[in-house]
Amino acid sequence: MIGQYDQLMDASWQDEDTNQHIARPYRTVRGFFTNNQVDSILSYMTTQQSVEGLVGKPSIDQDYSFAPDHDLRKCNVTYIQQDDHNRWFLQAIEQLITDSNDSLWQFDIVDYSQPARMMSYDSTDHFNSWHMDAGPGATRYRKLTAIVMLSNVGDFTGGNFQIACYGTIPLNKGDVVIFPAFTMHRVTPVITGSRRTLVHRAIGARFK
Fold this sequence. Notes:
The protein is built from three helices and 16 strands. The strands form four sheets. It has an eight-stranded antiparallel β-sheet.
């Protein structure tokens, strides 16, 4: 697995529109993972247990309470902690986030301690409500989000990843998009097929 990681960090993946970074609140990297590497990630993730995706809402004490709300979000989530089986791809994502932060945002990042997760959207599934990844409770420590597309664009219809004011951000298998956790975004309903993404986040002291 270490060999896979070293090979990945030497790969010739490319940024999209590098000169446009200053005008956009996100970074898109095309082909960060190869098709075979994505297949390996999927093979590992499908051995892990998934749960229903919940929606966090502020409660009386200003922390989050989590519950199903299919009007806002309908999907399955597979959570993982870093171990010997997944370290090669999680460390690769973390290094990409770190490098992106150093060059673009320079937020104070402490670690990647919140669990990574695979988001599984099947027909009629969505996270179609505009939302941020940062908020009350433990989410206040989220600084940057990375989304890795694990599906081919031909595997599903609908399921568009959108950033407020920037519209749909096209993502194909192996592509990564990174954005600040306070960025408004959503996933439109999947009409046919299945859409799989891997989400990982950088954690740090709350914004102030």
